């Protein structure tokens, strides 16, 4: 799987009924029923986290050209990626309308109208929408799409820079919780100047290491400073009656998160879904013979009800096919816990439970403790997925002091940590020499030399092959 990860990933999306990429527009796919459920549960987690401190809104998908064009640096970053609506029926539109590649230029003109005084601050809004980017790099389902179907974008405005910096930390906390719920490990870094979001003062990013060693950026958090505030004239009157520009931040995660869940946890048999996002947390597989069929099915229904009462998502696979086939299908689809029930189990008042993450079978009693026991298995399964994924990450980050070793390590599937002085020209030089991307800086350091110059090192940085 590691060798052919891209192929494995491509196949599993179709085999497990996640997406169908045969839709006749490149970079756009159909969410299939099973994938749609995973998407829904994933979305609900981030919604719950954001709802604590943000309000959800919904802005129009079209942005007037005049607004999109206002913020020079921002528009330059996106100019080759914008889809344009230029006609209404057969008539040319007076003003071209952009399909939002992201929503800063849709939202901030409205912030300018809504924000009047310090009482209106902070403002913290988010929306979950589709955005469009005419990506020129190789498109891949969920990973690099041209219609990002599930763009969860948050936009805040504050009275002071300190508050905006605190907001960045809050977002980091929210995303950590989000990825923890998905049992996804992450590397957090501050992107280099040349790779920050167009228009941002600085960008913090979450990256994951996929099984083939390439990293995938699964979330970004940007401190926008006052750049957009100045462009869109977003001001407020402070307590002393002085008019000031706001400080802004924004943060976003996309469909890529689901790609990381699939890629990081999957194995040669298929998906291994984290219980929190699995469409079914428990799949009951009846083993049916002519004799006793009704009794087994009745018991399965009873178990389902018992588990649903305890708050679990449960399905019964009562298709008229061999149990072995059902078994393989649910291995492929990654249900965290399967329960088998045949006539002999019924006689013994037990069910055979099997965790998808580690595959061992255990017998559990069909009594009042059933739900507790199943929940215990689900929790163990979450913990195990998480521990295995973090272990993989730890084992795949290596430090080197030798620039000539970077390539060898990256090609062997590692993300490389190195000491860097932080100088832009030297950073770009490192990228050019090695052919890989500097993800960013992780922490400040006070000792050692830069890997590529005589300067003292200032940061521990990461470099990798990226998606
Ligand atoms: C933050 C939200 C923004 O657009 N504006 C509002 C800011 N940031 S971003 O880095 O450009 O995108 C946020 C995250 O979206 C994912 N992403 C994509 N996913 C799938 N296909 C794409 N074409 C794509 N482009 C960006 C990344 O995970 C990114 O961090």
Task: Describe this protein with a few key phrases.
single chain; 467 residues; alpha+beta; BirA Bifunctional Protein, domain 2; Rossmann fold; Translation Initiation Factor IF3; seven-stranded mixed sheet; five-stranded mixed sheet; 23 strands; globular; binds '5'-O-(N-(L-prolyl)-sulfamoyl)adenosine
Structure description:
- By secondary structure, this protein is α+β, with helices and mostly antiparallel strands.
- It has 3 domains: about 5-265, BirA Bifunctional Protein, domain 2 (2-Layer Sandwich), CATH 3.30.930; about 280-375, Rossmann fold, CATH 3.40.50.800; about 400-465, Translation Initiation Factor IF3 (2-Layer Sandwich), CATH 3.30.110.30.
- About 35% of the residues lie in helices and about 30% in strands.
- The protein is built from 14 helices and 23 strands.
- The strands form 6 sheets. Strands 3-7-8-14-11-10-9 form a 7-stranded mixed β-sheet, sandwiched between helices. A 5-stranded mixed β-sheet has the order 16-15-17-18-19, with helices on both faces. A 4-stranded mixed β-sheet has the order 20-21-23-22.
- Helix 2 (about 35-50) runs antiparallel to helix 6 (about 160-180).
- It is globular and about 80 Å long.
- The two termini are about 15 Å apart.
- The model has no long low-confidence stretch (mean pLDDT about 95).
Strand content: 25-35%
CATH level 3 topology of the largest domain:
BirA Bifunctional Protein, domain 2
Q: What is the name of the CATH class of the largest domain?
A: Alpha Beta
Bound molecules: '5'-O-(N-(L-prolyl)-sulfamoyl)adenosine
Uncertain spans: none
Q: What does the largest sheet look like? A: 7 strands, mixed
Tell me the number of structural domains.
3
